[in-house]
Amino acid sequence: MAIDLDDYGWRGGEPPGDGTLGRIIRVDRGECDVATAAGMARALSDSQRAQAEVAPATGDWVLLGEDPELGTLVRQVLPRSNTLSRRDPSEAGLEQVLVANVDDVLIVHGLDRPLPAGRLERLLVVAWDSGADVAVALTKADTRAGGSADEVVATVRAVAPGTEVLLVGGDEGIDRVRARTGPGRTVALLGESGAGKSTLVNRLLGEDRLTTGEVRGGDAKGRHTTVSRELVQLPGGGLVIDTPGIRAVGLLDTEEALDRVFGDLQDLSAGCRYADCAHDSEPDCAVNGAVAAGDVEERRVARYRALRDELAEQRRRDEERRRRGGRGRR
Ligand SMILES: Nc1nc2c(ncn2[C@@H]2O[C@H](COP(=O)(O)OP(=O)(O)OP(=O)(O)O)[C@@H](O)[C@H]2O)c(=O)[nH]1
Ligand SMILES: [Mg+2]
Ligand SMILES: [Zn+2]
């Protein structure tokens, strides 16, 4: 079945170079599904050549080629407009590209569980670092037992002022999510297992196409129902990428994104007596001054310090690894 690649978000005009242009819909077991003008293709993604360059990720634009022995393979990953990346949980120091070429990142959180501010901050660092638009979707607004969503909404407003918050419960609120989608626009979902990401996609689709899972009783944890990142085309022409729940939000050394989450504290730091002030017990610390004046929440400063220290510690270990001859960030 012929496919119009503009519907998949292609904005590049004439495809560059040799090969068949396509967009990666899903990557699994060294192969990937690719939307091409001629229809869906299955291609080898981890050929020696591809691996030496960039590992293809869902959302990537690629050029496919034919190999006499291996069959269809990804010959080239085209330059990405951006990526949604975290620190690879299995290989320290490396960047793991979750998805490529996204216009919008939707952080999804289920109101059946608490939202620790620190967790939201980490998700925001990852999301903002992509350079895409970012919003927060709070699902299960219909089931919240005992109490309202106010507390969680307040957390989001405090941690990410100005960020759109979408309340979703059942079919309620889905229109505002749909409003963030649009023809050729790619929206990636990010959040822990059981948050309701796949359910959200199904609602947008108007059918139960993706598998969704029960949440375990007791701890309200999901079961990692979704196992691969998958790009889905919506009836209205929009594109959404469903992702498996992420447990560890490992951060890359993303100073800029940290700036954005804790920008006010970084600004305040300029007024500290010491340029390398840790905002701990140093004299004339502007950050602690603001805490004492009641302008800044003390716990927030603690989270800021912890994240900053974590990144510094990571940087130190990566440096050490590089010196020993290991690989650094790709
Ligand atoms: N009542 C209610 N239940 C919801 C809502 N959204 C999701 N759920 C339920 O929450 C459970 C988990 O939903 P999923 O969509 O599988 O969650 P997920 O984020 O895709 O989880 P992973 O694939 O494991 O990452 C399912 O039982 C859904 O029916 C909602 O708005 N209201
Ligand atoms: Mg899922
Ligand atoms: Zn200070």
What can you tell me about this protein's structure?
The protein folds into 3 domains: 5-77, OB fold (Dihydrolipoamide Acetyltransferase, E2P), CATH 2.40.50.140; 83-242, Rossmann fold; 262-323, Orthogonal Bundle (Ribonucleotide Reductase Protein R1, domain 1). The protein is built from 9 helices and 13 strands. The protein has helices at 48-52, 117-129, 150-159, 174-178, 197-205, 255-261, 263-269, 286-292, 298-323, and strands at residues 20-28, 31-36, 39-44, 61-67, 71-77, 83-87, 95-100, 104-110, 133-139, 164-167, 186-190, 230-233, 239-242. It has a 6-stranded mixed beta sheet with strand order 10-9-8-11-13-12, with helices on both faces. A hairpin with a 5-residue loop joins strand 12 (230-233) and strand 13. Helix 6 (255-261) crosses helix 7. The longest helix is centred in the last third of the chain and has 26 residues, at 298-323. 37% of the residues are buried. The mean pLDDT is 87. Residues 269, 272, 277, 279, 282, 285-287 line the site of zinc ion. The site of magnesium ion (MG) has 5 residues, from helix 5.
Layout of secondary structure:
Blueprint: E1 20-28, E2 31-36, E3 39-44, H1 48-52, E4 61-67, E5 71-77, E6 83-87, E7 95-100, E8 104-110, H2 117-129, E9 133-139, H3 150-159, E10 164-167, H4 174-178, E11 186-190, H5 197-205, E12 230-233, E13 239-242, H6 255-261, H7 263-269, H8 286-292, H9 298-323
Parallel strand pairs: 8-9, 8-11, 9-10, 11-13
Antiparallel strand pairs: 1-2, 1-4, 2-3, 4-5, 6-7, 12-13
Helix pairs in contact: 2-6, 6-7
The site of zinc ion has 8 residues, from α8.
